[in-house]
Specification:
Layout: H1 2-22, E1 38-44, E2 61-64, E3 67-71, E4 76-82, E5 85-92, E6 105-111, E7 116-125, E8 139-145, H2 148-155, E9 159-160
Parallel strand pairs: 1-7, 4-9
Antiparallel strand pairs: 1-4, 2-3, 2-5, 5-6, 7-8
Length: 162
């Protein structure tokens, strides 16, 4: 009887222990760009909403100045070296490398030599437009620049894309 009680207690505690492990923040230290160049971090953290994460198994193709630099899966980040100047970043599902239904998002930005810039792809459920009878969920998607101090705290909980 005692071993059965121990096993039952262990089974009941297991989900609690596993969830505690998954919420531990990781470590992130930004790379520094080489001389005369810049660095862009693009990241896609978990959504703020509780429960299911929107578009968890979907991933866009990230294009910088018209060329693909990789895909951005859920809860990941990508580092891209670039030259100083004006650039255009595009999040798209219109490439054979993507598995992404939402419309494209495009944003222009400028970087200077030695600068590390952070852009966040924020994917959330649009709770204002979701109704009980709606056939599919509604999302809000934003591609936004983020201050380095704030971005580092969010990126540390994501995985690097190889």
């Amino acid at each position: 009887m005692l071993t059965l009680r121990r096993r039952l207690t262990a089974l009941l505690c297991l989900p609690l222990l596993l969830s505690a492990c998954s919420t531990t923040p990781g470590y992130f230290e930004a790379q520094q760009p080489s001389a005369g160049s810049s660095l862009l971090y693009i990241y896609r953290p978990k959504a703020d909403n509780p429960g299911m994460q929107p578009l968890r198994f979907s991933y866009p193709d990230i294009q910088l100045d018209g060329r693909s630099v990789g895909q951005l899966p859920f809860n990941s980040h990508l580092a891209v070296g670039l030259s100083p100047g004006k650039h255009t970043l595009r999040v798209t599902g219109l490439s054979k490398n993507a598995k992404w239904e939402p419309r494209d998002i495009e944003q222009s930005f400028t970087v200077s030599a030695g600068e590390v810039k952070y852009m966040k792809l924020n994917v959330q459920y649009n709770l204002n437009e979701m109704n009980l009878g709606q056939p599919s969920p509604s999302y809000t998607l934003f591609l936004m620049p983020v201050r380095a101090d704030d971005a580092r705290y969010e990126i540390r909980n994501t995985s690097a894309v190889d």
